[in-house]
Amino acid sequence: MSYLLTLHRDTVHSLATNARCVPAAELVPLQDAMVLVERLTGLVASQEQRVTEAEQSARQAGELVGYEAGKMKALHDASHQLALAMEQLARDQSRQREELREALVALATGMVRCIAAELAPEQVLAALAVRAFEQVVPQQAVRLHVPQELVESVRAQLGLRDLALPVHCVADASLQGLDCRVESQAGSLLAGLDEMLSCTTQRLSLNRQTQACIAESA
């Protein structure tokens, strides 16, 4: 037996679905779409009312030329106002999308921190170090600086992995928690959890800026 679930209805538009419920992941986009429809409907109705009022005013003047001129002016003004309103609506939607992206990045960062807090610190540091080793070019022996109390456990964790370069773990009293530093002849690289999350956030921001530039130039 088929049926339709009405989600929205007014004098102009209606929105229905044959699903028994709206998935949670689609609820926010659906609500945004419904709000957008309502705003656009209100804008069009407002401009139509302005045109009608201008026509009536010109008709009451009793001059055909003035009536036609008034009608054309009202249409022009209404089109201009509607275009401005649409541009503002597009800017509002773009700002809301950007705010949503930033909120999602913050949420993802927080989730990573929570997951890391549930793991053994030596496992997290070993994983971060292995990722940092990939940035050492050319491959060469490195010194991995870790907090003093974790040096032995991190060394043991790295011993379980098939590393592509020689690694010497050293204790560093200036480091705490999930901080670590990779040192080679090429230089020194901070590779702790905070640095990794900060780098990831910066890359996401750069990608958004690049996509925005491409969209504007298209």
Notes on the structure:
The structure is a single chain. The protein has helices at 24-60, 64-118, 121-133, 151-159, 193-217; strands at 5-9, 14-17, 142-146, 167-171, 181-184, 187-190. The mean pLDDT is 76. α1 runs antiparallel to α2 and α3 crosses α4. The relative contact order is 0.07. The two termini are 47 Å apart. The protein has 218 residues and is an alpha+beta fold. The chain is built from 5 helices and 6 strands; from the N terminus they run ββαααβαβββα.
Core attributes:
two-stranded antiparallel sheet, 6 strands, about 220 residues, 4-stranded mixed beta sheet, alpha+beta, about 65% helix, about 10% strand, 5 helices
By oligomeric state, this entry counts as: single chain
Shape: elongated
Q: Characterize the largest beta sheet: strand count, sense, and whether it forms a barrel.
A: 4 strands, mixed
Q: In total, how many beta strands? A: 6
Offer a concise description of the structure.
By secondary structure, this protein is of the alpha+beta class. 64% of the residues lie in helices and 12% in strands.
Question: What are the SSEs and their pairings?
Answer:
Layout: E1 5-9, E2 14-17, H1 24-60, H2 64-118, H3 121-133, E3 142-146, H4 151-159, E4 167-171, E5 181-184, E6 187-190, H5 193-217
Parallel strand pairs: 3-4
Antiparallel strand pairs: 1-2, 3-5, 5-6
